[in-house]
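TASK: fixed-backbone design
INPUT:
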């Protein structure tokens, strides 16, 4: 592997122009294009593309195209999860999605962060922090989950919310930044 890919995978500062990362980006581009172009095909016919693109794919996962990601290999999705149209999963760090998760349209799961120092940011330095979504979570349409966030199982995040901090299990959270408004009872 290239030095910057090693640094990225370790969660350190890296430069994304690394030749190995460029190859990984091209692989992702080809697979996402094939998946998205097959939008009229049955999900079972598109599943082999997802299996090749993603690092882990549970049973009966449905992702409605178009779908975009950075690399794909850092994404793991649990059984019976549904991802609606226009999902963007930037997976410079691991993105782990549990089983039976519902993800609304236009949801963004973002792991990269950029340098605050102007000179280093201009030079292209970035790093990433994992995103983890527990089982039975529902992310409403347009939710943005920021780097390093964990959302506990059975939590619901209201449409348009921006999740900047961890959310516990079994709560309803809304707003920008998302705040817990109440506990949920099954």
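OUTPUT:
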């Amino acid at each position: 592997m290239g030095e910057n890919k090693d640094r990225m995978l370790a969660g350190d500062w890296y430069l994304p122009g690394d030749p190995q990362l460029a190859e990984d980006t091209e692989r992702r581009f080809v697979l996402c294009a094939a998946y998205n172009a097959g939008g009229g095909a049955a999900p079972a016919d598109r599943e082999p593309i997802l299996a090749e693109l993603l690092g882990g794919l549970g049973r009966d996962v449905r992702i409605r195209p178009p779908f975009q990601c950075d690399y794909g290999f850092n994404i793991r999705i649990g059984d019976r999860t549904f991802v609606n149209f226009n999902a963007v999963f930037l997976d410079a760090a691991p993105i782990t999605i549990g089983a039976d998760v519902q993800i609304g349209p236009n949801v963004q799961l973002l792991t990269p962060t950029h340098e605050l120092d102007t000179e280093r940011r201009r030079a292209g330095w970035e790093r990433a922090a994992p995103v983890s979504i527990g089982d039975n979570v529902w992310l409403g349409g347009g939710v943005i989950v920021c780097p390093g966030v964990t959302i506990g199982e059975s939590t619901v995040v209201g449409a348009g919310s921006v999740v900047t901090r961890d959310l516990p299990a079994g709560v309803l959270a809304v707003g920008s930044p998302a705040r817990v408004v109440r506990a949920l009872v099954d």
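COMMENT: The mean pLDDT is 95.
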